[in-house]
Amino acid sequence: MKSLLVIVTLICIASLPFLLFTRCTTSASYYIKFKVDGVDKNFDKGPTNYESVPFGQIVTGDPDYTDLRATPDVETGEVLPLDNYISIQFFGITTGDYIGLEEAIIAYNENGAKYLATDITVNVTRYDEDEGGVIEGTFSASVTPEVPNGSKEITEGEFRVKRVARDLFIP
């Protein structure tokens, strides 16, 4: 009985590094999370019928820019507009800080009300060049409605989205 206990203990100890240092890469690992005026939001689905998970794409322009999109509502819904979604665009295709309207745009739709960012900070910490990779980072913004009557604060924003084909979905 003692030897069986020792064998089981050794197997558990040997398995520990594998369990600690591997992580799942399922679609549930893609998201754009943030708080709006202190209320948690978790957008973990794709906002178009092109991609079922939150995604980031390079959009060809002058210059090329990156567009991240997500919704909490549907996995493969119709092309925008949706009642709830977020679009984070930054004028670059690499890691780094993107600050202000000259470098980034955030559009946020909440129950059909459209908000645009006025004060933006996006920090991209990972940007995989290959399709199927990941784009990760953090963001914050002040957003105002299309018909101004106050503003909302987006704080503690973070994203981990699937890197998809260039120009997959043109906004």
Supply database-style keywords.
mainly beta, 171 residues, 1 helix
* Uncertain spans: 4-8, 16-27
Rg (CA only)? 20 Å
Helix content: 10-25%
Total domains: 1
Alpha-beta content class: mainly beta
Write up what this structure looks like.
The protein has 1 helix and 10 strands, in the order αββββββββββ. About 10% of the residues have low confidence. The chain has one domain. It is mainly beta. It starts with a helix and ends in an 8-residue tail after the last strand. Strands 3-4-5-7-8-9-10 form a 7-stranded mixed barrel. It is 12% helix and 46% strand.
Topology:
Blueprint: H1 2-21, E1 31-36, E2 39-43, E3 55-59, E4 65-70, E5 85-90, E6 96-99, E7 104-110, E8 113-127, E9 134-145, E10 152-163
Parallel strand pairs: 3-10
Antiparallel strand pairs: 1-2, 1-10, 3-4, 4-5, 5-7, 6-8, 7-8, 8-9, 9-10
Write a concise synopsis of the structure shown.
Helix content is 12%, strand content 46%. It has 171 residues and is mainly beta. It has one domain (26-163).
